[in-house]
Amino acid sequence: MDGKLYDGVTAHPHDVRVKAADGRIELSQATGWSDSVEGNLLKRMDAPAGTLRLGRTDISGWRLMLPAEAEVELAGLLGKHERYGRWIDRFGLGPALAIGAVVTASVVAIGYIAPHWIAPHVPMSWERNVGTAIVGDFGTIRCRDAKGQKALEDLVERVAPGATRGPDAIKVAALNVPIFNAAALPGGYIVVFKPAITETDSDALAGVLAHEIAHVRRRHVTEAMIREFGIGALIRLFAGGVGANAEQIVALSYTRDNEAQADSDAIAMLKRAGISPKPTAALFDRLSKLDVKAPGFSSEFLQSHPLSDKRARKFAASFDPHASYSPALSRDDQDALFDVCRKSKASLTAF
Amino acid sequence: MDSHQEWAAAGDDRAIRFTGNWREYLPIAATNALLIICTLGVYRFWATARQRRYLWSRTQIIDDTLEWTGTGKEMFIGFLIVIAILAPFFLFIQFLFPALVARGKLDAAGGILFLFYIALIYLGGFARFRALRYRLSRTYWHGIRGGSDDPGWNYGGEYLGRYALTIITMFIMFPWATTRLWNSRWNAMSFGPLQFRASLNAQGLKARWALVYAAPIVAMIAAFGLIAALGIGFKPASGPNPTLGGVFLVIILLIYVAIPLATLHWYAKFFRRAADETKLGNLEFGFDATTLQWLGLFLGNLLLAVVTLGFGLTYWGYRNWAFMVRHLHVYGTVDLADMTQSKTHAPREAEGFADAFDVGAI
Q1: Is residue B62 part of a domain?
Q2: ipTM score above 0.85
Q3: Which of A59, A346, B265, B320 has its CA at a distance of 20 to 30 angstroms from the CA of residue B246?
Q4: What's the pTM value of the predicted model, to 2 decimals?
């Protein structure tokens, strides 16, 4: 049969006669030139219907174009056509899809579940090192009024006696940041932003703090961190470029189960401390309504703590009309706490 | 044997044609999408290779098609290499930045962020150059490939410098920067023994760039005219404020219509001029897509994705490539006997950098 040959040296096409002979193809020209190529050096290239296009694995640019009928004659010489990539072709499309689906589902499942089992076994001292490296002392954005700080620590002690002492002590700090938020950070740090102090009463703040303390004690923070650096990084790596995600600061998020558990713990803590859960319920109720009415406002808090009427109701339902509740803080301590950020000048607006 | 032959590339018959059709591409699009989903995205490198093999092989130039010889494996490995180089750097910044913010060292955090963006712009330019170089080195025609021996480090620096000036001058210098960078990029590239020659300048592009600045003003006048015509304008505020809806309308018109449209209008001319001013040996190029045709492409892409509930996304690369080929013209002659194999070094890291910085097109 007749074919056209590019030798890979120049762009000039040569007319050649092609013959298949045991394990090889033999090329010849009227001028007397001839050549033979071993079948295992040949590979099929993509070409429009009606042509068979062959390349060589040892000479880049070498191409032999033949009519499509040549396929039958050369069938024995040419291996299987690479279709989806060799690692997929090995199994075939159907099985590869099935295997891929199972492996992917397992990786994702393990990536989400495993941190829950690993987290409790991570020594607190390791986490503390990470936390301290990231958090430091908060510099000028920390509210440093001594009386206010004492009141804040008293509030933590009130809901979780002994929590601010010992090697695994919880360190609580008020930050002069104008966003309604509170968060648990790696290493047992809990931060409360200014509006969460000035726009609530201390009973509701006790509920919020109890919730964050639960996150720390249940190792939810560690869990979220492992998840973020494990499966989170893996997914972002292949789903998009690292460049696009480079600006993203480590965003910790808890699972729904973790949130529910922290709520239950918080309710139990409030009960033991004799603090009414109603102000916390009212706060959550207020925030969940804000969420609907004004998207954007306090969205930071809502992102890390998805609020719903259900959560507010859960706190409200734990109110016991026969119990005797007392305020979380004395009048003086409430005032001191309210003023905790009064003297700090630096304020973080956006970063 | 005839050893010397010249091909007239001009004439009634277009020298460059796209011969693919969407039905023929459907099995590739469908299986690519499925495999990408089932492999957590890892397959996307092989998907890209398959897509390009199809598109290149359905692009006829004069008497033969293009050929894509890049593989999914080399792109995957290239990506892993780049990640291995960049990951420590990104991780370090990821820890350093919040650590500085948490310590209240906002100036230092800002400085780090500034340096980070500088590095990002530099590497972005470098990535763009390397992607073009890689693509040419894997593109064959008549058994001959393209490439470049320039590693692109200097181009990254030039890219950073020109765009820094652009930003400092509130983007007034943008046409100047973009056209000069086009030249620097293409002048470093070759195909076979032939060097690309680009001599694009901002001439004829400045007026359209000025329009990008004028567009918001025109849109604002149009929007207020519309509000006045609808009679929802400046009534004394009683009850819910009716002007709020009007202001909203203005913002929407500005952000989503006027500025992108003016920018597209600029790019349409940029590509026409760029093709006119770029040459390869005795070959000259032309590009004839108008702003409306570009708009048609993008709106078509969006519509396709919406109507097919997302599956249409798999056709964006196909549609974009077909659009480029259909509007591209090639004129002149090419001497096949003198067109010898490229001696440029074939890069091995594939498009890792472009991938990592998300600047890859098709």
Answers
A1: yes
A2: no
A3: B265
A4: 0.79
